[in-house]
Amino acid sequence: MKVIFLSAFIFLFSIAGQAQNTNVKSEIKTVTTTVKDSRGKKKIVKSEETNEVQKIALEEEKPNTLNIPIKDSPVDVTTKTKVIVDGVIKSEEVNHSSYYSLGGEKYQIQSDKTGYVMTNPKTNTLSLLRKTSNNNYIFKNKDNFSVGYFDVDGNLILETYDEKTDSVIQEKYSVVKP
């Protein structure tokens, strides 16, 4: 009875392991610096965790071949940086570079030196996202200014003041999962 139960258990988990259709790569880079000054030694640890997830997509099957080639698909990269000074977490950041959608339009957000740049690949319009001191972002394009933030699911929420209705309009750019 034990053998049958154990065999069924191993069989089920081996099938679940085969069903993964994503390439996942994780990398953690840690830099430790010790600073000695008149107040003593300070230990600074900077840890950067990078996760890359790519969904595996296959091309059309060619007749009389055994192997099916893999089609290029977008890679979702998230980077989380943590700085620890003398055992206390000083800052923690998550990179939100990815593809987002709003109203059927697809937008790409890429990080740059001072925040993010949002582009619409179809129209090549450019918008800027600049980080503020309270972890919000100022959104600027040629038409308007907005205040934005990333929610817990990674979606970009923009809030824009409408003078005509004297209200705040909220737009949600949903993150596109690979």
List the helices and strands and how they pair.
Blueprint: H1 2-18, E1 22-37, E2 40-55, E3 57-58, E4 70-71, E5 75-85, E6 88-94, E7 98-102, E8 105-112, E9 115-120, E10 125-131, E11 137-140, E12 145-150, E13 156-162, E14 167-175
Antiparallel strand pairs: 1-2, 2-5, 3-4, 5-6, 7-8, 7-14, 8-9, 9-10, 10-11, 11-12, 12-13, 13-14
Low-confidence stretches: none
Number of strands: 14
Tell me what portion of residues adopts beta-strand conformation: over 45%
Major sheet characteristics: 8 strands, antiparallel, barrel
> What's the helical proportion of residues?
under 10%
Number of helices: 1
Protein structure class: mainly beta
Separation of termini?
Answer: 43 Å
Q: What is the molecular shape?
A: extended
| Radius of gyration, CA atoms, in whole angstroms | 23 Å
- The string of secondary-structure elements, in order, is HEEEEEEEEEEEEEE
Arrangement of strands in the largest sheet: 7-8-9-10-11-12-13-14
Mean pLDDT level: 81
Detailed description of the structure:
The chain is mostly beta strands and 178 residues long. Helices cover 10% and strands 60% of the residues. The chain has one helix spanning 2-18, and strands at 22-37, 40-55, 57-58, 70-71, 75-85, 88-94, 98-102, 105-112, 115-120, 125-131, 137-140, 145-150, 156-162, 167-175. The protein has an 8-stranded antiparallel beta barrel. The chain has a 4-stranded antiparallel beta sheet with strand order 1-2-5-6, with no helix packed on it. A two-stranded antiparallel sheet has the order 3-4. Strand 10 (125-131) and strand 11 form a beta hairpin. 6% of the residues are buried. The mean pLDDT is 81.
